[in-house]
Each structure stands twice: as structure tokens, then as C-alpha cells.
Design goal:
2 domains, five-stranded parallel β-sheet, 469 residues, Elongation Factor Tu (Ef-tu), domain 3, alpha/beta, six-stranded antiparallel β-sheet, tRNA processing, binds flavin-adenine dinucleotide, single chain, FAD/NAD(P)-binding domain
Length: 469
């Protein structure tokens, strides 16, 4: 049997290689370290954790990443097995001894009969006779390969500077203060004329907001980020604010073309807009609010915005070097590049974020590649599971309106979160029981989502197994 080639032995590539080999298909894993390294990796170990040692919450009932852990364990994940074996105390989180963890992954792959590891850089598109390839080269993909990928995906398709605006859960926005309306009610291509959520500010609120924004604590660039250019129009909001107190009112917060139905006689002095971010309509991103403020400061400053006082953030803003595809446009539902389907992508380069999410997408890519090699259908997990929700975000959940400048390249990497799942029916109180209050309601809603996910994943695994027999 011809091997599957996996390029990149990080979190995603290591998991993908393991899954392929466990399915009985030979794999060649190409990792460039130690021949060449990235600006963040320090060792030659596979699955090196470049920064924190945490896989985040391990609570599979009330936390989306905890649920993803559970699902990965169910699918025989090497990353989770090595993580569990090298756990260090971290409360409700799963944190690992990074060296022990990486050594365990490296040794499991090195000792696997069907895996060959080659330590060299793939410095361009993989050779034409590699017919089944997974590219899992991460946010710091080597420049030669990144250039080659950009050649076949188009100039805007591979981002090099990741300017991220915060994303808010819709059900935490106060719609008694905000309203839906597009500027000048323009429907545009694919819109309705009421596509944005608008948050109004009066003069005093605006001035206080700008002052706080400018004086809040910012994150410094790392050395290796300092020379990376900004995308056009991606200046952090606090840098724009530093240019003068009126800058934001004439930029992303301009109040024109909008009328507040809650108070039609009064013109807002400034308006913050949020745009729908996923097809489900559960997440909205803050338009033009890419920021390098410290995460703690962001929540405080952005909750000063009328209507966002109780905002819950699916992700906070950030700005760092990154390499990721405009996946919803470029990849098919099983992560293959539409323009060259022998190439499949996995890990952070597809637009997920985080160690666990990258490994999870590696796991799926590995299963898809193995199924293809074995002449089977590559089954996609249901969108009610954490796997399916994350895959859906990457391959199609995000909304981009063709021709709308604001959404031209707005797909952003994201951690798994409950906003990516289809809604569940609102939890009801027990018959005759007390009325459910906020925190109880939220807890019940989360456990309804995770219970549904677990049942659906098990049913899906059963179906895939039956089809293979
Ligand atoms: C500075 C920084 C800090 C981060 N901190 C965190 C954090 O604290 N927590 C978190 O959850 N996530 C963090 N992330 C995100 C993290 O990178 C990803 O979550 C995860 O490592 C991505 O997994 P991956 O497999 O896609 O890429 P990686 O783990 O980076 O693996 C990619 C591999 O491909 C190799 N490679 C690259 N180009 C080539 C080539 N041409 N040929 C052969 N091999 C190649 C690299 O050497 C590397 O081993 C951070 C990212 C960065 C850049």
C-alpha cells in the first residue's frame, strides 16, 4: 500500500500520523526540526508545546474543550493518551509535563511499525507522486512551503498577521439597548439590510471609553513578531484611538446611516457594530475591534459599551504572527484543498486555535486520509459533537459576504466553544420545581449540549464501525 505523507510533526501531524497507522495504513511523517526550526520551538521532540503546558478544562459536562478531550479519548487519541499519562496538578484543567508528554508522543510514533519519520523540511509543494498528503505545519509554517501554498491558494488566502477582533456570544448581548440594522439599510449581496448589531454611545460614554482604551494595558510584540507587516486596515483599535479622540468616531465607530429604534429622536454620538460570525447566528464579532490589549483589560473595556455590559466572549482579540488558510473558501468538508485534493490540511493552519483543537483536527484528517487510502467513505462527525462543531467552523460555518470589504478576509482561528454548536431546546424547570435562575440555566444548557454530543458521537462511532465491517 502506498504511504500517506504527513508534513509537520506538531500536535496535529503527530495525531494524524498515529490515526493513519492505527487504521493499518503506512505513513511517512516529515518533520523539519532539528534540521531547521521555527521561531517558537525549542526542541526536536514531536508535539512540542511552544508556550503554556495546559490543555485547558477537563470538564466534559460544562466546558467545550473538556468535551473535546472526552471525544478525543473516545477516538483513541495519542495526544490525549500521552497528556493523561504525563498530567501535572492543575485543578480542573489538564496540564502536562511538557518534556514527558513530547517524549511519549515521539516514542509512540518512532516505535510504530507503520510509521517512518523523516527529519527534513518540505520546502515547496509536495512531489506530484505523493497522492495523499496531510499538511500540518502549523502557525509557523516554514517560509518556502508557505510561499508555495500561497501560489496555489491566492495572495489573500494565507494570513501572516493575525489581527483578531473579539467574538461575543449573541445571547449575552442586551437587545433592549442594541438593534439590528445595516448602515443605510443596505442589503448588499446576501444580506437583509439588518445584518449588524448596533450598540449606541452618547458623547460622555464615548469619551470615557476612548480614554480607558488608550490607558489600558497592552501586550508587547515578541522579537520575532516585530518585523511582520500588518494587513491593510488591521490596525489595533487602541492604536487608532491614540491618533486622536475623534479617530474612532470617523472610523469603525462612525454613527452614520443608523437609527436607534429604542430611541429614534436621539442621534448616537458613536456606534459599535457587531457582525454575525457563524452560520448558526450564535456568535458575533466586533467590527474593527482587533486589539492587542491584555485579555483581562479587554473584557473590562468592552463591557463599557452599552448593550455589552454582560457580554460573554467566545474569544478575545489579539494580534500575532500566524499562518492560516481561508478554509471555508478553500477546503472541502473533509479538509482537502479544493484546488488540489491530494493535499489535505490539519491543525492550526486550517483556522482552529489551541493545542487540543489542532490535535483534534489532526485526528480527523488522519481518519479521513486513511479511509480514502482504504477505499472507504470519509465520514464526517455530526455537527452536534465537538469534533463536528469545530470542523464545521473551519469548513463552512463562518459567514463571509462576497464583495463586502468588511468580511473579505474575516475568517479567524478559534478555540472550540459552545457558540459553534447548534442550539439545544431551552432547559425547563422540573414540574412543580423552582424557576431556574441564570447560572443554573446556563449550567443545564451546557450539560444538555454535552450530553447530546456524547450520545451522537457514540452513535456515529457505531455507524462508522459497522460500515467498515
Ligand atoms: C508563539 C505561540 C504561542 C502559542 N501558545 C499557545 C498556548 O499557550 N496554548 C495553546 O493551546 N496554543 C498555543 N499556540 C497555538 C499553537 O501553536 C497551536 O495550538 C499548536 O501548536 C498548533 O499545532 P499544529 O500541529 O497545527 O502546529 P505545530 O504544533 O506548530 O506543529 C507544526 C510542525 O510543523 C513543522 N514544520 C513547519 N514547516 C515545515 C516544513 N516545511 N516541513 C516540515 N516540517 C515543518 C514545525 O517544525 C512543527 O513541528 C501558540 C502558538 C504560537 C505561535
Amino acid at each position: 500500500m502506498k504511504p500517506v505523507h504527513v508534513v509537520g510533526g506538531g500536535l496535529a501531524g503527530s495525531e494524524a500520523a498515529f490515526q493513519i497507522a492505527e487504521a493499518g495504513v503506512p505513513v511517512i511523517l516529515h518533520e523539519m526540526r532539528p534540521v531547521r526550526s521555527t521561531d517558537a520551538h525549542k526542541t526536536d521532540g514531536l508535539a512540542e508545546l511552544v508556550c503554556s503546558n495546559s490543555f485547558r478544562s477537563d470538564d466534559s459536562e460544562a466546558n467545550a474543550v473538556g468535551l473535546l478531550h472526552w471525544e478525543m479519548r473516545r477516538l483513541n487519541s495519542l495526544i490525549m493518551r500521552a497528556g493523561d499519562a504525563h498530567q501535572v496538578p492543575a485543578g480542573g484543567a489538564l496540564a502536562v509535563d511538557r518534556d514527558g508528554f513530547s517524549a511519549a508522543v515521539t516514542s509512540a510514533l518512532e516505535s510504530h511499525d507503520l510509521i517512518t519519520i523523516e527529519r527534513s523540511e518540505i520546502a515547496g509543494l509536495p512531489p506530484a507522486d505523493w497522492d495523499n498528503v496531510i499538511v500540518a505545519t502549523g502557525p509557523l509554517t516554514s517560509p518556502a512551503l508557505a510561499d508555495a501554498i500561497r501560489e496555489i491558494t491566492g495572495r489573500d488566502a494565507l494570513a501572516f498577521f493575525d489581527a483578531i477582533a473579539p467574538i461575543v456570544h449573541f445571547d449575552s448581548i442586551d437587545m433592549n439597548v442594541c438593534w439590528f440594522q445595516s448602515r443605510y439599510d443596505k442589503a448588499g449581496p446576501g444580506g437583509t439590510g439588518a445584518d449588524y448589531i448596533n450598540c449606541p454611545m452618547d458623547k460622555e460614554q464615548y469619551e470615557r471609553f476612548v480614554q480607558t482604551l488608550v490607558s489600558s494595558e497592552k501586550i508587547d510584540f515578541k522579537d520575532w513578531e516585530a518585523n511582520t507587516p500588518y494587513f491593510d486596515g488591521c490596525l489595533p483599535i487602541e492604536i487608532m484611538a491614540e491618533r486622536g479622540p475623534e479617530t474612532l468616531r470617523h472610523g469603525p465607530m462612525k454613527p452614520v446611516g443608523l437609527t436607534n429604534p429604542h430611541n429614534p429622536e436621539v442621534k448616537a454620538y458613536a456606534i459599535v457594530q457587531l457582525r454575525q460570525d457563524n452560520a448558526l447566528g450564535t456568535l458575533f464579532n466586533m467590527v474593527g475591534f482587533q486589539t492587542k490589549l491584555r485579555h483581562g483589560a479587554q473584557a473590562d473595556v468592552f463591557r463599557m459599551i452599552p448593550g455589552l455590559e454582560k457580554a460573554e466572549f467566545a474569544r478575545l482579540g489579539g494580534l500575532h504572527r500566524n499562518t492560516f488558510l481561508d478554509s471555508p473558501r478553500l477546503l472541502d468538508p473533509v479538509l482537502r484543498l479544493k484546488a488540489d485534493p491530494r493535499l489535505r490540511f490539519a491543525g492550526q493552519i486550517t483556522g482552529c486555535e489551541g493545542y487540543v483543537e489542532s490535535a483534534a483536527i489532526g485526528l480527523l484528517a488522519g481518519r479521513f486520509a486513511a479511509a480514502e487510502r482504504l477505499g472507504r467513505t470519509a465520514d464526517v462527525p455530526p455537527d452536534t459533537t465537538a469534533f463536528g462543531a469545530l470542523l464545521g467552523h473551519i469548513t463552512g460555518g463562518h459567514i463571509a459576504v462576497e464583495g463586502d470589504e468588511n468580511t473579505k478576509r474575516s475568517f479567524q482561528p478559534m478555540n472550540v466553544n459552545f457558540g459553534l454548536f447548534p442550539p439545544v431546546e431551552k432547559p425547563k424547570r422540573e414540574p412543580g420545581g423552582p424557576r431556574l435562575r441564570g447560572p443554573d440555566k446556563a449550567r443545564l444548557k451546557k450539560s444538555a449540549v454535552t450530553a447530546r454530543a456524547k450520545a451522537d458521537l457514540d452513535a456515529w462511532i457505531g455507524g462508522v464501525r459497522a460500515a467498515a465491517e
